[in-house]
Design goal:
Helices cover 0% and strands 39% of the residues. The chain has 174 residues and is mainly β.
Length: 174
């Protein structure tokens, strides 16, 4: 096993070099017995540090930022057999109200034979927090007819439509 050997068990073989013997030399007062051994390379600890996440109301849940602590021998995330996967609590959706939601994002799934992987969250929490912020939406008058006026939005927001607005023209309801 070299300096950058993968975790595992490696055999160690002990033997005299070819052509060498101690039995014929009378000056030696001992005998050699060859016993093989093994070298165990244990996996190193690796921590995935998961940051709290922030997103605007109406946006999809995305993976939070994360970093690693503990890679050795020049390894990187690309050295892992699988990368972390992030799961949001079931009640966290695009329509979750603005606010701070602690302990709603968990990480799992990172794998490597060379590392014992653990997960760490801010402030010693058991999962990462999500902050949902207000989103900016621009509403503008669209098609106008004598019986109706449509309103155009610059982005789709769940549950936000024409029924959420009242329209006036010169201060008079339309």
């Amino acid at each position: 096993a070299g300096a950058k050997a993968d975790a595992g068990v490696y055999p160690i073989t002990v033997s005299l070099k070819d052509g060498k013997t101690l039995n014929d030399d009378v000056n030696y007062n001992f005998t050699i017995s060859e016993t093989n051994g093994s070298l165990t390379v244990k996996p190193s600890p690796l921590t995935v540090n998961v940051s709290d996440a922030v997103r605007a109301y109406g946006e999809s849940n995305a993976d939070p930022a994360y970093t690693y602590d503990g890679f050795v021998n020049g390894d990187t995330e690309e050295s892992l057999a699988s990368k972390p996967v992030f799961t949001y609590a079931e009640n966290i959706t695009e329509t979750t109200d603005t606010g701070v939601y602690p302990d709603v994002i968990t990480a799992s799934g990172a794998e490597s034979n060379n590392y014992v992987i653990s997960y760490s969250y801010a402030n010693g929490a058991t999962a990462a927090a999500l902050t949902v912020t207000k989103t900016n939406v621009t509403a503008s008058g669209g098609t106008s007819r004598s019986s109706y006026l449509t309103i155009n939005f610059d982005k789709a927001i769940p549950d936000l439509g024409n029924d959420n607005f009242s329209v006036t023209l010169d201060g008079n309801p339309v």
